[in-house]
Protein backbone atom coordinates (compact mmCIF):
# COMPACT_ATOMS: atom_id res chain seq x y z
CA UNK A 1 0.00 0.00 0.00
CA UNK A 2 1.15 3.53 -0.73
CA UNK A 3 2.10 5.92 2.05
CA UNK A 4 -0.91 7.46 3.80
CA UNK A 5 -1.97 10.93 2.70
CA UNK A 6 -2.73 11.93 6.27
CA UNK A 7 -0.74 10.68 9.19
CA UNK A 8 -1.40 11.97 12.71
CA UNK A 9 0.60 10.81 15.74
CA UNK A 10 -0.26 11.51 19.35
CA UNK A 11 -2.13 14.74 18.64
CA UNK A 12 -2.93 16.73 21.78
CA UNK A 13 -4.85 19.99 22.05
CA UNK A 14 -5.67 21.64 25.35
CA UNK A 15 -7.47 24.81 26.29
CA UNK A 16 -7.31 26.88 29.46
CA UNK A 17 -4.81 26.47 32.25
CA UNK A 18 -4.59 25.46 35.87
CA UNK A 19 -7.84 24.16 37.30
CA UNK A 20 -9.76 24.91 34.11
CA UNK A 21 -7.32 23.05 31.84
CA UNK A 22 -9.23 20.90 29.37
CA UNK A 23 -7.64 18.27 27.17
CA UNK A 24 -9.90 18.63 24.16
CA UNK A 25 -7.86 16.15 22.15
CA UNK A 26 -5.86 13.78 24.30
CA UNK A 27 -3.39 11.73 22.31
CA UNK A 28 -5.04 10.82 19.01
CA UNK A 29 -3.32 8.92 16.18
CA UNK A 30 -4.70 7.87 12.80
CA UNK A 31 -3.79 7.45 9.16
CA UNK A 32 -5.86 8.03 6.05
CA UNK A 33 -4.93 6.49 2.71
CA UNK A 34 -5.18 8.25 -0.62
CA UNK A 35 -8.76 8.34 -1.91
CA UNK A 36 -10.18 7.14 1.40
CA UNK A 37 -13.04 8.71 3.35
CA UNK A 38 -12.28 8.64 7.06
CA UNK A 39 -15.10 9.45 9.46
CA UNK A 40 -14.92 10.98 12.91
CA UNK A 41 -18.05 10.50 14.97
CA UNK A 42 -18.93 11.57 18.51
CA UNK A 43 -21.05 13.94 20.55
CA UNK A 44 -20.48 17.65 21.09
CA UNK A 45 -17.25 18.39 22.90
CA UNK A 46 -15.62 15.05 22.06
CA UNK A 47 -12.82 16.78 20.14
CA UNK A 48 -13.71 15.77 16.60
CA UNK A 49 -13.82 19.30 15.19
CA UNK A 50 -10.75 20.28 17.22
CA UNK A 51 -8.76 17.62 15.34
CA UNK A 52 -9.79 19.16 12.02
CA UNK A 53 -8.89 22.65 13.21
CA UNK A 54 -5.43 21.45 14.26
CA UNK A 55 -4.54 19.55 11.09
CA UNK A 56 -5.95 22.27 8.84
CA UNK A 57 -3.74 24.85 10.53
CA UNK A 58 -6.62 26.92 11.90
CA UNK A 59 -5.46 26.17 15.42
CA UNK A 60 -1.68 26.20 15.72
CA UNK A 61 -1.49 25.34 19.43
CA UNK A 62 -1.10 21.59 19.55
CA UNK A 63 1.52 18.94 20.19
CA UNK A 64 2.32 15.68 18.45
CA UNK A 65 3.03 15.28 14.77
CA UNK A 66 0.95 15.42 11.66
CA UNK A 67 1.86 15.13 8.00
CA UNK A 68 -0.39 15.65 5.02
CA UNK A 69 0.77 14.52 1.59
CA UNK A 70 4.25 14.07 3.02
CA UNK A 71 4.45 17.63 4.30
CA UNK A 72 4.60 18.20 8.08
CA UNK A 73 1.75 20.36 9.38
CA UNK A 74 3.41 23.50 10.76
CA UNK A 75 2.62 25.24 14.03
CA UNK A 76 2.12 28.51 12.20
CA UNK A 77 0.05 29.70 9.28
CA UNK A 78 1.36 27.89 6.21
CA UNK A 79 -0.02 29.18 2.89
CA UNK A 80 1.47 26.26 0.97
CA UNK A 81 -0.61 23.89 3.06
CA UNK A 82 -3.79 25.64 1.88
CA UNK A 83 -3.07 24.24 -1.59
CA UNK A 84 -3.15 20.74 -0.12
CA UNK A 85 -5.87 20.86 2.56
CA UNK A 86 -9.15 22.76 2.59
CA UNK A 87 -12.05 22.73 4.98
CA UNK A 88 -15.85 22.90 4.58
CA UNK A 89 -17.79 24.04 7.62
CA UNK A 90 -21.18 23.12 8.98
CA UNK A 91 -23.00 26.37 8.63
CA UNK A 92 -22.94 27.90 5.17
CA UNK A 93 -24.72 30.95 6.61
CA UNK A 94 -21.76 31.67 8.86
CA UNK A 95 -18.90 30.62 6.61
CA UNK A 96 -19.56 33.02 3.70
CA UNK A 97 -19.04 36.75 4.04
CA UNK A 98 -22.51 38.33 3.77
CA UNK A 99 -21.28 41.35 1.84
CA UNK A 100 -19.10 39.48 -0.64
CA UNK A 101 -20.48 38.12 -3.89
CA UNK A 102 -19.76 34.51 -4.77
CA UNK A 103 -17.12 35.81 -7.18
CA UNK A 104 -15.36 37.86 -4.49
CA UNK A 105 -15.36 34.89 -2.15
CA UNK A 106 -13.90 32.61 -4.81
CA UNK A 107 -11.42 35.18 -6.08
CA UNK A 108 -9.81 35.70 -2.67
CA UNK A 109 -7.84 32.43 -2.56
CA UNK A 110 -6.84 32.89 -6.21
CA UNK A 111 -5.46 36.34 -5.42
CA UNK A 112 -3.68 35.27 -2.23
CA UNK A 113 -1.97 32.42 -4.00
CA UNK A 114 -1.19 34.45 -7.11
CA UNK A 115 -2.90 32.07 -9.53
CA UNK A 116 -3.70 33.01 -13.10
CA UNK A 117 -6.91 32.54 -15.09
CA UNK A 118 -9.10 33.50 -12.13
CA UNK A 119 -12.30 33.88 -14.13
CA UNK A 120 -11.87 30.54 -15.83
CA UNK A 121 -11.13 28.77 -12.55
CA UNK A 122 -14.29 30.25 -11.03
CA UNK A 123 -16.44 29.13 -13.96
CA UNK A 124 -14.99 25.65 -13.79
CA UNK A 125 -15.41 25.22 -10.05
CA UNK A 126 -18.98 26.58 -10.07
CA UNK A 127 -19.90 24.14 -12.82
CA UNK A 128 -18.25 21.36 -10.86
CA UNK A 129 -20.45 22.01 -7.81
CA UNK A 130 -23.55 22.18 -10.01
CA UNK A 131 -24.10 25.93 -10.11
CA UNK A 132 -24.28 27.91 -13.33
CA UNK A 133 -21.53 30.53 -13.76
CA UNK A 134 -24.24 33.20 -13.44
CA UNK A 135 -24.20 32.54 -9.69
CA UNK A 136 -20.91 34.42 -9.40
CA UNK A 137 -22.75 37.74 -9.07
CA UNK A 138 -25.03 36.61 -6.24
CA UNK A 139 -24.69 37.49 -2.58
CA UNK A 140 -25.09 34.77 0.08
CA UNK A 141 -28.56 36.01 1.07
CA UNK A 142 -29.70 35.39 -2.51
CA UNK A 143 -28.85 31.69 -2.22
CA UNK A 144 -30.65 28.79 -0.59
CA UNK A 145 -28.90 26.79 2.14
CA UNK A 146 -27.93 24.05 -0.31
CA UNK A 147 -26.60 26.53 -2.87
CA UNK A 148 -24.60 28.25 -0.15
CA UNK A 149 -23.00 24.98 0.85
CA UNK A 150 -22.19 24.38 -2.82
CA UNK A 151 -20.40 27.74 -2.90
CA UNK A 152 -18.49 26.81 0.29
CA UNK A 153 -17.44 23.55 -1.41
CA UNK A 154 -16.46 25.49 -4.54
CA UNK A 155 -14.28 27.77 -2.43
CA UNK A 156 -12.58 24.75 -0.89
CA UNK A 157 -11.98 23.25 -4.35
CA UNK A 158 -10.66 26.31 -6.11
CA UNK A 159 -7.06 25.77 -4.95
CA UNK A 160 -7.27 22.16 -6.20
CA UNK A 161 -6.43 20.57 -2.84
CA UNK A 162 -5.82 16.86 -2.32
CA UNK A 163 -7.59 16.64 1.02
CA UNK A 164 -10.96 18.04 2.11
CA UNK A 165 -11.81 18.27 5.80
CA UNK A 166 -15.60 18.24 6.11
CA UNK A 167 -16.97 19.43 9.44
CA UNK A 168 -20.65 18.39 9.62
CA UNK A 169 -21.14 19.55 6.02
CA UNK A 170 -24.85 18.68 5.85
CA UNK A 171 -26.19 18.94 9.38
CA UNK A 172 -27.65 22.42 8.83
CA UNK A 173 -29.52 21.26 5.73
CA UNK A 174 -32.89 19.63 5.10
CA UNK A 175 -32.68 15.91 4.32
CA UNK A 176 -33.56 16.30 0.63
CA UNK A 177 -30.81 18.92 0.26
CA UNK A 178 -28.44 16.78 2.33
CA UNK A 179 -28.83 14.00 -0.24
CA UNK A 180 -27.85 16.39 -3.04
CA UNK A 181 -24.76 17.63 -1.21
CA UNK A 182 -23.63 14.12 -0.22
CA UNK A 183 -24.00 12.99 -3.84
CA UNK A 184 -22.02 16.03 -4.95
CA UNK A 185 -19.24 15.24 -2.46
CA UNK A 186 -19.09 11.64 -3.75
CA UNK A 187 -18.90 12.83 -7.37
CA UNK A 188 -16.17 15.38 -6.68
CA UNK A 189 -14.14 12.84 -4.75
CA UNK A 190 -14.23 10.42 -7.66
CA UNK A 191 -13.43 13.06 -10.27
CA UNK A 192 -10.58 14.74 -8.41
CA UNK A 193 -9.33 11.67 -6.54
CA UNK A 194 -9.65 13.50 -3.23
CA UNK A 195 -9.20 12.22 0.29
CA UNK A 196 -11.83 13.19 2.87
CA UNK A 197 -11.98 13.42 6.62
CA UNK A 198 -15.67 13.71 7.49
CA UNK A 199 -16.85 14.80 10.94
CA UNK A 200 -20.46 13.96 11.69
CA UNK A 201 -22.72 13.03 14.57
CA UNK A 202 -24.99 11.12 12.18
CA UNK A 203 -24.22 7.42 11.73
CA UNK A 204 -26.36 7.33 8.60
CA UNK A 205 -24.16 9.94 6.91
CA UNK A 206 -21.00 8.19 8.15
CA UNK A 207 -22.16 4.79 6.88
CA UNK A 208 -23.10 6.28 3.52
CA UNK A 209 -19.89 8.21 2.91
CA UNK A 210 -16.99 6.60 4.77
CA UNK A 211 -14.68 3.63 4.42
CA UNK A 212 -13.57 3.71 8.04
CA UNK A 213 -14.76 5.57 11.12
CA UNK A 214 -13.20 6.47 14.46
CA UNK A 215 -15.48 6.92 17.45
CA UNK A 216 -14.45 9.72 19.81
CA UNK A 217 -15.36 10.47 23.38
CA UNK A 218 -13.77 12.97 25.79
CA UNK A 219 -10.85 13.71 23.46
CA UNK A 220 -9.76 10.13 22.82
CA UNK A 221 -10.47 7.66 20.04
CA UNK A 222 -12.35 4.77 21.57
CA UNK A 223 -12.18 2.57 18.53
CA UNK A 224 -11.77 2.50 14.79
CA UNK A 225 -14.21 0.50 12.69
CA UNK A 226 -14.56 -0.38 9.06
CA UNK A 227 -17.95 0.61 7.66
CA UNK A 228 -18.65 -3.09 7.14
CA UNK A 229 -18.26 -3.61 10.90
CA UNK A 230 -20.34 -0.54 11.70
CA UNK A 231 -23.19 -1.63 9.44
CA UNK A 232 -23.23 -5.09 10.98
CA UNK A 233 -23.13 -3.66 14.48
CA UNK A 234 -19.74 -5.23 15.23
CA UNK A 235 -18.37 -2.71 17.71
CA UNK A 236 -16.33 -3.35 20.83
CA UNK A 237 -17.27 -0.38 22.98
CA UNK A 238 -20.62 0.03 24.72
CA UNK A 239 -20.49 3.74 24.04
CA UNK A 240 -20.29 3.13 20.28
CA UNK A 241 -23.22 0.74 20.53
CA UNK A 242 -25.19 3.32 22.48
CA UNK A 243 -24.60 5.97 19.80
CA UNK A 244 -25.41 3.43 17.11
CA UNK A 245 -28.70 2.43 18.70
CA UNK A 246 -29.63 6.00 19.53
CA UNK A 247 -29.27 6.93 15.87
CA UNK A 248 -32.07 4.51 15.02
CA UNK A 249 -34.58 6.70 16.87
CA UNK A 250 -36.50 6.58 20.12
CA UNK A 251 -37.13 3.44 22.08
CA UNK A 252 -38.53 3.08 25.57
CA UNK A 253 -36.07 0.30 26.27
CA UNK A 254 -32.84 2.25 26.00
CA UNK A 255 -30.93 2.88 29.19
CA UNK A 256 -31.10 6.43 30.40
CA UNK A 257 -28.04 8.58 30.60
CA UNK A 258 -29.86 11.39 32.39
CA UNK A 259 -27.90 10.72 35.55
CA UNK A 260 -24.64 11.14 33.74
CA UNK A 261 -25.84 14.43 32.25
CA UNK A 262 -26.65 15.60 35.77
CA UNK A 263 -23.21 14.79 37.02
CA UNK A 264 -21.61 16.71 34.17
CA UNK A 265 -23.60 19.87 34.80
CA UNK B 1 -62.45 7.87 20.93
CA UNK B 2 -63.13 10.65 23.39
CA UNK B 3 -63.59 14.30 22.45
CA UNK B 4 -60.38 15.71 20.95
CA UNK B 5 -58.39 18.20 23.02
CA UNK B 6 -57.68 20.35 19.99
CA UNK B 7 -59.60 20.70 16.75
CA UNK B 8 -58.09 22.58 13.84
CA UNK B 9 -60.11 23.02 10.68
CA UNK B 10 -59.02 25.04 7.68
CA UNK B 11 -56.15 26.89 9.37
CA UNK B 12 -54.31 29.34 7.12
CA UNK B 13 -51.46 31.70 7.87
CA UNK B 14 -50.30 34.22 5.31
CA UNK B 15 -47.92 37.15 5.14
CA UNK B 16 -48.04 40.18 2.93
CA UNK B 17 -44.71 40.90 1.32
CA UNK B 18 -43.62 43.30 -1.42
CA UNK B 19 -43.62 40.28 -3.75
CA UNK B 20 -47.23 39.49 -2.95
CA UNK B 21 -48.98 37.31 -0.38
CA UNK B 22 -46.94 34.41 0.99
CA UNK B 23 -49.01 31.47 2.20
CA UNK B 24 -47.16 29.80 5.08
CA UNK B 25 -50.01 27.49 6.07
CA UNK B 26 -52.73 26.61 3.54
CA UNK B 27 -55.98 25.50 5.08
CA UNK B 28 -54.89 22.52 7.17
CA UNK B 29 -57.15 20.43 9.38
CA UNK B 30 -56.33 17.97 12.15
CA UNK B 31 -57.27 17.00 15.69
CA UNK B 32 -55.21 16.09 18.73
CA UNK B 33 -56.45 13.84 21.52
CA UNK B 34 -54.54 12.29 24.41
CA UNK B 35 -51.75 11.24 22.09
CA UNK B 36 -48.43 12.24 20.59
CA UNK B 37 -48.96 13.80 17.18
CA UNK B 38 -45.86 14.51 15.14
CA UNK B 39 -45.73 17.25 12.52
CA UNK B 40 -42.81 16.64 10.14
CA UNK B 41 -41.59 18.69 7.26
CA UNK B 42 -38.61 20.53 5.91
CA UNK B 43 -37.76 24.15 6.62
CA UNK B 44 -40.45 26.44 5.33
CA UNK B 45 -43.13 23.75 5.30
CA UNK B 46 -45.22 25.69 7.82
CA UNK B 47 -44.85 23.26 10.74
CA UNK B 48 -43.62 25.83 13.25
CA UNK B 49 -46.11 28.43 12.09
CA UNK B 50 -48.87 25.90 12.73
CA UNK B 51 -47.71 25.47 16.33
CA UNK B 52 -47.52 29.20 16.84
CA UNK B 53 -50.89 29.86 15.25
CA UNK B 54 -52.58 27.56 17.77
CA UNK B 55 -51.26 29.78 20.57
CA UNK B 56 -51.83 32.92 18.50
CA UNK B 57 -48.14 33.69 18.70
CA UNK B 58 -47.69 34.47 15.02
CA UNK B 59 -45.88 37.71 14.14
CA UNK B 60 -48.12 40.82 13.95
CA UNK B 61 -47.73 40.88 10.15
CA UNK B 62 -49.31 37.42 9.83
CA UNK B 63 -52.92 36.96 8.85
CA UNK B 64 -54.44 33.90 10.48
CA UNK B 65 -57.79 32.41 9.60
CA UNK B 66 -59.54 29.17 10.49
CA UNK B 67 -63.01 27.71 10.20
CA UNK B 68 -62.54 26.04 13.57
CA UNK B 69 -59.74 26.46 16.09
CA UNK B 70 -61.07 24.92 19.26
CA UNK B 71 -59.23 23.86 22.38
CA UNK B 72 -61.50 21.88 24.73
CA UNK B 73 -64.54 24.12 25.00
CA UNK B 74 -62.68 27.30 24.13
CA UNK B 75 -62.97 28.91 20.71
CA UNK B 76 -59.36 30.03 20.20
CA UNK B 77 -60.23 31.80 16.97
CA UNK B 78 -62.51 34.18 18.87
CA UNK B 79 -60.35 34.51 21.99
CA UNK B 80 -58.83 37.95 22.55
CA UNK B 81 -55.30 38.63 23.74
CA UNK B 82 -56.41 38.74 27.37
CA UNK B 83 -58.07 35.35 27.13
CA UNK B 84 -55.04 33.94 25.32
CA UNK B 85 -52.77 35.04 28.16
CA UNK B 86 -54.84 32.89 30.45
CA UNK B 87 -54.49 29.92 28.12
CA UNK B 88 -50.83 30.11 27.20
CA UNK B 89 -48.67 28.32 29.72
CA UNK B 90 -51.67 27.45 31.86
CA UNK B 91 -53.70 25.21 29.55
CA UNK B 92 -51.36 24.92 26.55
CA UNK B 93 -47.60 24.84 27.09
CA UNK B 94 -44.86 25.30 24.53
CA UNK B 95 -41.31 23.98 24.45
CA UNK B 96 -38.87 25.48 21.98
CA UNK B 97 -35.69 24.16 20.44
CA UNK B 98 -32.97 25.77 22.49
CA UNK B 99 -33.30 26.25 26.26
CA UNK B 100 -30.41 28.72 26.11
CA UNK B 101 -32.72 31.23 24.48
CA UNK B 102 -35.97 30.25 26.16
CA UNK B 103 -34.82 30.61 29.77
CA UNK B 104 -34.24 33.96 31.43
CA UNK B 105 -30.46 34.20 31.83
CA UNK B 106 -30.53 36.48 34.90
CA UNK B 107 -32.94 34.47 37.04
CA UNK B 108 -32.28 31.19 38.79
CA UNK B 109 -33.89 28.14 37.29
CA UNK B 110 -35.97 27.50 40.40
CA UNK B 111 -37.38 31.02 40.52
CA UNK B 112 -38.46 30.80 36.89
CA UNK B 113 -40.27 27.52 37.36
CA UNK B 114 -41.92 28.73 40.58
CA UNK B 115 -43.02 31.88 38.78
CA UNK B 116 -44.63 29.78 36.03
CA UNK B 117 -46.66 28.10 38.77
CA UNK B 118 -47.60 31.22 40.74
CA UNK B 119 -48.72 33.15 37.67
CA UNK B 120 -51.37 30.54 37.00
CA UNK B 121 -52.20 29.30 40.52
CA UNK B 122 -52.59 31.32 43.68
CA UNK B 123 -49.97 29.78 45.91
CA UNK B 124 -47.58 30.91 48.61
CA UNK B 125 -43.94 31.12 47.66
CA UNK B 126 -43.16 28.21 49.99
CA UNK B 127 -45.76 26.05 48.27
CA UNK B 128 -44.50 27.10 44.84
CA UNK B 129 -40.96 26.16 45.84
CA UNK B 130 -42.11 22.78 47.06
CA UNK B 131 -43.99 22.12 43.83
CA UNK B 132 -40.96 23.25 41.82
CA UNK B 133 -38.66 20.84 43.63
CA UNK B 134 -41.14 18.02 43.06
CA UNK B 135 -41.37 18.93 39.37
CA UNK B 136 -37.57 19.00 39.01
CA UNK B 137 -37.54 15.54 40.49
CA UNK B 138 -40.22 14.44 38.03
CA UNK B 139 -37.95 15.42 35.13
CA UNK B 140 -35.24 13.21 36.68
CA UNK B 141 -33.01 15.93 38.04
CA UNK B 142 -31.09 14.18 40.72
CA UNK B 143 -30.32 17.03 43.04
CA UNK B 144 -33.29 19.42 42.75
CA UNK B 145 -32.25 21.64 45.66
CA UNK B 146 -28.90 22.38 44.07
CA UNK B 147 -30.33 22.88 40.58
CA UNK B 148 -33.06 25.19 41.97
CA UNK B 149 -30.40 27.83 42.70
CA UNK B 150 -28.46 27.49 39.44
CA UNK B 151 -28.59 30.02 36.63
CA UNK B 152 -29.37 28.80 33.09
CA UNK B 153 -25.74 29.15 31.94
CA UNK B 154 -24.70 26.72 34.68
CA UNK B 155 -26.72 23.80 33.33
CA UNK B 156 -26.09 21.57 30.29
CA UNK B 157 -28.31 21.59 27.21
CA UNK B 158 -30.05 18.39 28.19
CA UNK B 159 -30.72 19.61 31.70
CA UNK B 160 -31.88 22.97 30.33
CA UNK B 161 -34.45 21.21 28.19
CA UNK B 162 -35.65 19.16 31.17
CA UNK B 163 -36.01 22.41 33.10
CA UNK B 164 -38.13 23.77 30.25
CA UNK B 165 -40.30 20.66 30.41
CA UNK B 166 -40.67 21.13 34.18
CA UNK B 167 -41.65 24.76 33.71
CA UNK B 168 -44.21 23.92 31.06
CA UNK B 169 -45.76 21.04 32.98
CA UNK B 170 -46.00 22.62 36.41
CA UNK B 171 -49.30 24.44 35.70
CA UNK B 172 -50.63 21.04 34.48
CA UNK B 173 -51.68 21.97 30.94
CA UNK B 174 -53.85 19.75 28.73
CA UNK B 175 -51.81 20.26 25.61
CA UNK B 176 -48.10 20.66 25.01
CA UNK B 177 -46.61 21.97 21.78
CA UNK B 178 -42.94 21.02 21.41
CA UNK B 179 -41.13 22.63 18.50
CA UNK B 180 -37.93 20.70 17.74
CA UNK B 181 -37.42 20.14 21.48
CA UNK B 182 -34.40 17.89 21.10
CA UNK B 183 -32.73 19.11 17.91
CA UNK B 184 -30.05 21.02 19.83
CA UNK B 185 -29.14 17.99 21.95
CA UNK B 186 -26.69 15.14 21.50
CA UNK B 187 -28.25 11.82 20.53
CA UNK B 188 -27.87 10.07 23.87
CA UNK B 189 -29.11 13.09 25.85
CA UNK B 190 -31.93 13.46 23.34
CA UNK B 191 -33.21 10.00 24.19
CA UNK B 192 -33.27 10.65 27.93
CA UNK B 193 -35.17 13.92 27.42
CA UNK B 194 -37.63 12.14 25.12
CA UNK B 195 -38.18 9.39 27.64
CA UNK B 196 -39.07 11.97 30.32
CA UNK B 197 -41.42 13.72 27.92
CA UNK B 198 -42.97 10.40 26.94
CA UNK B 199 -43.56 9.33 30.55
CA UNK B 200 -45.00 12.64 31.67
CA UNK B 201 -47.27 12.92 28.65
CA UNK B 202 -48.69 9.43 29.13
CA UNK B 203 -48.91 9.63 32.95
CA UNK B 204 -50.72 12.94 32.90
CA UNK B 205 -52.85 12.18 29.86
CA UNK B 206 -51.72 15.21 27.88
CA UNK B 207 -51.95 15.83 24.19
CA UNK B 208 -48.58 16.48 22.58
CA UNK B 209 -47.83 18.16 19.28
CA UNK B 210 -44.26 17.25 18.40
CA UNK B 211 -42.84 19.38 15.61
CA UNK B 212 -39.68 17.99 14.03
CA UNK B 213 -37.71 17.62 10.83
CA UNK B 214 -36.44 14.19 11.92
CA UNK B 215 -38.49 11.44 10.29
CA UNK B 216 -36.87 8.57 12.16
CA UNK B 217 -37.38 10.23 15.49
CA UNK B 218 -41.03 11.05 14.86
CA UNK B 219 -41.69 7.57 13.50
CA UNK B 220 -40.34 6.01 16.68
CA UNK B 221 -41.59 8.54 19.25
CA UNK B 222 -45.07 9.65 18.16
CA UNK B 223 -48.41 7.87 17.78
CA UNK B 224 -49.49 9.66 14.64
CA UNK B 225 -47.64 11.70 12.04
CA UNK B 226 -48.75 14.58 9.83
CA UNK B 227 -46.40 15.32 6.93
CA UNK B 228 -46.35 18.94 5.83
CA UNK B 229 -45.15 20.27 2.52
CA UNK B 230 -45.45 23.91 1.42
CA UNK B 231 -48.08 24.72 4.04
CA UNK B 232 -50.26 21.66 3.46
CA UNK B 233 -50.66 18.37 5.21
CA UNK B 234 -49.88 16.02 2.33
CA UNK B 235 -50.23 12.82 4.33
CA UNK B 236 -51.37 11.69 7.76
CA UNK B 237 -50.73 8.21 9.11
CA UNK B 238 -49.94 6.17 12.23
CA UNK B 239 -46.27 6.63 13.13
CA UNK B 240 -45.46 2.93 12.95
CA UNK B 241 -46.65 2.92 9.35
CA UNK B 242 -44.52 5.86 8.27
CA UNK B 243 -42.25 3.60 6.23
CA UNK B 244 -45.33 2.53 4.27
CA UNK B 245 -46.16 6.12 3.35
CA UNK B 246 -47.83 6.60 -0.02
CA UNK B 247 -47.34 10.26 -0.90
CA UNK B 248 -44.38 10.78 -3.26
CA UNK B 249 -43.06 13.61 -1.07
CA UNK B 250 -42.97 11.44 2.05
CA UNK B 251 -41.50 8.59 0.04
CA UNK B 252 -38.90 10.95 -1.42
CA UNK B 253 -37.89 12.19 2.02
CA UNK B 254 -37.56 8.68 3.39
CA UNK B 255 -35.54 7.52 0.39
CA UNK B 256 -33.15 10.46 0.55
CA UNK B 257 -32.10 9.62 4.14
CA UNK B 258 -28.71 7.92 4.33
CA UNK B 259 -29.15 4.51 5.97
CA UNK B 260 -26.92 2.94 8.51
CA UNK B 261 -27.50 -0.63 7.36
CA UNK B 262 -27.52 -0.24 3.61
CA UNK B 263 -24.96 1.29 1.29
CA UNK B 264 -26.30 2.88 -1.87
CA UNK B 265 -24.12 4.25 -4.63
CA UNK B 266 -26.08 7.49 -4.76
CA UNK B 267 -28.86 8.88 -2.63
CA UNK B 268 -32.11 9.40 -4.53
CA UNK B 269 -32.78 13.11 -4.79
CA UNK B 270 -36.27 14.41 -4.23
CA UNK B 271 -37.89 15.83 -7.35
CA UNK B 272 -40.63 18.22 -6.36
CA UNK B 273 -43.87 17.98 -8.26
CA UNK B 274 -45.79 21.27 -8.62
CA UNK B 275 -48.98 19.22 -8.25
CA UNK B 276 -48.13 18.73 -4.53
CA UNK B 277 -48.91 22.39 -4.00
CA UNK B 278 -52.53 21.90 -4.89
CA UNK B 279 -53.29 18.20 -4.44
In short:
By secondary structure, chain A is α/β, with parallel strands linked by helices. Chain A has helices spanning 48-55, 79-82, 92-95, 102-112, 118-128, 145-157, 175-192, 203-209, 227-231, 238-246, 258-264; strands spanning 6-15, 22-32, 37-41, 63-68, 71-72, 85-88, 163-167, 195-200, 212-217, 220-226.
Task: Give the biggest sheet of chain B.
Answer: 6 strands, mixed
Computed over alpha carbons, the radius of gyration of chain B is 20 Å
> What's the count of strands of chain A?
10
Strand order within the widest beta sheet of chain A: 6-7-8-3-9-10
| Most strands sheet of chain A | 6 strands, mixed
Return the string of H and E elements of chain B: EEEHEEEHEHHHHHEHEHEEH
Query: What shape does the CA trace of chain B take?
Result: globular
SSE layout:
The complex is a heterodimer of chains A (265) and B (279).
Chain A: E1 6-15, E2 22-32, E3 37-41, H1 48-55, E4 63-68, E5 71-72, H2 79-82, E6 85-88, H3 92-95, H4 102-112, H5 118-128, H6 145-157, E7 163-167, H7 175-192, E8 195-200, H8 203-209, E9 212-217, E10 220-226, H9 227-231, H10 238-246, H11 258-264
Parallel strand pairs in A: 3-8, 3-9, 6-7, 7-8
Antiparallel strand pairs in A: 1-2, 1-4, 4-5, 9-10
Helix pairs in contact in A: 5-6, 6-7
Chain B: E1 6-17, E2 20-32, E3 36-40, H1 47-54, E4 62-65, E5 68-71, E6 74-75, H2 81-87, E7 92-95, H3 99-102, H4 109-120, H5 125-138, H6 144-148, H7 157-169, E8 175-179, H8 187-204, E9 207-212, H9 215-221, E10 224-229, E11 232-238, H10 248-256
Helix pairs in contact in B: 4-5, 4-7, 5-7, 7-8
How would you sum up this structure, described in words?
With 265 residues, chain A is an alpha/beta fold. Chain A is 37% helix and 23% strand. In chain A, strands 6-7-8-3-9-10 form a 6-stranded mixed sheet, sandwiched between helices. A 4-stranded antiparallel sheet of chain A has the order 2-1-4-5, with helices on one face. The longest helix of chain A is centred in the C-terminal third of the chain and has 18 residues, at 175-192. Chain A is globular and about 50 Å long. Chain B is of the alpha/beta class and 279 residues long. A 6-stranded mixed sheet of chain B has the order 7-8-9-3-10-11, sandwiched between helices. In chain B, strands 1, 2, 4, 5 and 6 form a 5-stranded antiparallel sheet that branches. In chain B, helix 4 (109-120) packs parallel to helix 7 (157-169), helix 5 crosses helix 7 and helix 7 packs parallel to helix 8 (187-204). The two termini of chain B are 29 Å apart.
Amino acid sequence: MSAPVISVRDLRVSFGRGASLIHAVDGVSFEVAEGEVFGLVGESGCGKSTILRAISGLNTEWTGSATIAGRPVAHRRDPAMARIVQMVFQDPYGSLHPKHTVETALMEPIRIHGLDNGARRIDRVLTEVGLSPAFRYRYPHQLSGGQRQRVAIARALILEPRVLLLDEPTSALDVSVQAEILNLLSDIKRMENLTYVLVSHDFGVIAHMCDRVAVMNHGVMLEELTIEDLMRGRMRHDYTRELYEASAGYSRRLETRADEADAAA
Amino acid sequence: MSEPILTVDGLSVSFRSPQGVVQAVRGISFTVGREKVGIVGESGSGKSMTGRAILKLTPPSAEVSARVLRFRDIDLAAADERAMRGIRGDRIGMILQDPKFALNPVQTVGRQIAEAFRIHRSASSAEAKERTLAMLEAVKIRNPRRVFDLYPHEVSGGMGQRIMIAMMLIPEPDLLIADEPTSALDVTVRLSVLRILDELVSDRGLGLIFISHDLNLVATFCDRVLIMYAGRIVESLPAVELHRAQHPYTRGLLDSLPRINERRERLPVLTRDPAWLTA
